[in-house]
Amino acid sequence: MTNLVTDTGVVFSRELRPVLRNPFTVVFAMVQPLVFLGLFAPLLPDDLSLQWFVPGIVVMSCLFGTSMTGSNLLFEIQTGSHERMLVTPLRRPALLIGRALKEIVPVVVQAAVIVAICLPFGFDLHLGGALLGLVILSVFCLGLGSLSYTLALAAKNQEWLFWTVQQTLLFPLLLLAGMLLPVEAGPGWLQALSKWNPLTYVVDAERALFNGDVWASTTVTGAIAAAAVGAFGLLVGTRAMRRSA
Amino acid sequence: MIETHDLTRHFKDVQAVRGINLTVAPGELVALLGPNGAGKSTTLRMLTTLIPPTSGTARVAGHDVVRAQREVRHRIGYIGQGNGAAHSQRGRDELISQGRAYGMKVADARRRAAELIESLDLGEVADRTVSTLSGGQRRRLDIAMGLIHAPELLFLDEPSTGLDPQNRANLQEHIVELRERYGTTIVLTTHYLDEADAMAERVIVIDHGRIIADDTPARLKDEHVGDRIVLGFEHETDAAAVAARVPHKSHQHGTEVTISVPGAPRLVTGLLDDLRAWGLPPAEVEVRRATLDDVFLQLTGRSLREGGAARSAGDTGETAPALVEA
């Protein structure tokens, strides 16, 4: 017999299959974070170390990849395979959760690649903290992926709508989270905006955790922010998927 | 297998489907024929649980399409207008995923996928990325996807749209063959007249969201149009003389006489003997068999063929039949 878990497993493994068939796509998708790593990191002021910058790039790679993932669904809506899935007995929430869960896989692989590249340049890996950081990031990624799919379901045949919204939100979220440069150096209004960005807390938590600082309060606030985004994304996403036709 | 009662669907101000009452028995092969926008696809989308009806009810494979969606979905196969297989996937992977979506075990899905790949001639392309397949190959893969769980009822929405004539014929062969082998009930929509004519034992003509005719193609043609013999003469006086003497319903127009008579191909030789005996041999003879387009024209005053403009009832024509919204 099937249930929500087996249905989710079917959708998850279907989504993962093209990645397994062609693993290089995962590395290909992280060109932008790598460009920032190679060309932006050398520009950092002396007081900002690689230790500070790398966790931000790990989150950035999650943000770029996962926020775009809805475009895969958008393409399947346009070609007809989403409709085909809707006529199968798969439960509607599984169609969303399975897809969103799959996003965690490239994020973890990309994090490993980024860390591996930075180790020879003096990046210090604290494995326990980094792993806990990836758990928090995965929860965030689950929510973000769901929101990206929601956007795809809402955009349907208007591809431009998906990309306009995605691109418009991407960079403000990224910059306001202090991903590239610390927000503390900015004016008050920018700092205030940053406090409303859940991604800020995730980035702060990742910085502390990748530095081995597991028992910091940022771990808790980061986990709460990630869980909030995860729960909100799943809620909105499953609603949108139930209405999909 | 299907039973609908006053099935209706509105989209905002548009009444796409207006009260369809339809019964399909197990094993039937039914074509829903009509121009674009007639309500065929909307009807199909309601029967396959994709959209709920605005009013009315439908039972499909023994279950209500609104109250028992999962039961219906388990029992039906659906091949939509697009490609069921995602372009980024490999065909075989999609077939196995599809089987698992219906609750099949991995090993069973794998076996069944191999069987369908074989019977739909997909062996050489099944392990390639779907985006590299030709239109005809993709369509056959879609058919395989729809059959993975051996459904008792299969819906096909415009199965051969966009295919060249050779691939269309090939696809039709596959559908007919699979039906003979598995006894599947098949409901398809089409706007290709020859497709409905060649494949379906029963044609349901839909126009403006309503069923306007429902019968075998042969009976539809006999009942609504019939066959015609068109005789051409050198002189108008000969034509008039013949029109007056033939013992069938006839109509003279200039040097041409059109005789409406069932079974025209059988009668034509005898008729020619009579004409010679009367000393009124025709210069030209043409037998025009009724087409489903003639039926549609008769029923609605509009043509299903290219251009969609109304033409005189005697006009047939040999152009590729494609329906365009009238």
Major beta sheet summary of chain B: 6 strands, mixed
- From the N-terminal CA to the C-terminal CA of chain A, the straight-line distance is 25 Å
* Oligomer classification: heterodimer
Largest interface: A-B, 26 and 31 residues
**Order of strands across the widest beta sheet of chain B?**
6-7-8-3-9-10
Into which percent range does the helicity of residues of chain B fall?
25-40%
Q: What is the overall shape of chain A?
A: globular
The fraction of residues in strands of chain A falls at: under 5%
Number of strands of chain A: 0
Structure classification of chain A: mainly alpha
Number of helices in the DSSP assignment of chain B? 11
Question: Which shape of chain B, going by the Cα principal axes?
Answer: elongated
Summarize the structure in words:
- The complex is a heterodimer of chains A (245) and B (326).
- Chain A is mainly alpha-helical.
- Chain A has helices at 4-21, 24-28, 31-40, 50-68, 70-79, 81-87, 92-102, 104-118, 127-155, 159-176, 188-195, 198-210, 217-243.
- Chain B contains eleven helices and 14 strands.
- Chain B is elongated, with a radius of gyration of 24 Å.
- Chain B has helices at 40-47, 69-75, 91-101, 106-119, 135-147, 165-182, 193-199, 217-224, 236-245, 264-277, 292-300, and strands at residues 2-11, 14-24, 29-33, 55-60, 63-64, 76-79, 153-157, 185-190, 202-207, 210-215, 228-232, 249-253, 256-260, 284-288.
- The longest helix of chain B is centred in the middle third of the chain and has 18 residues, at 165-182.
- Classes of the chains: A mainly alpha (245), B alpha/beta (326).
- At the A-B interface, helix 1, helix 5 and helix 6 of A face helix 2 and helix 3 of B.
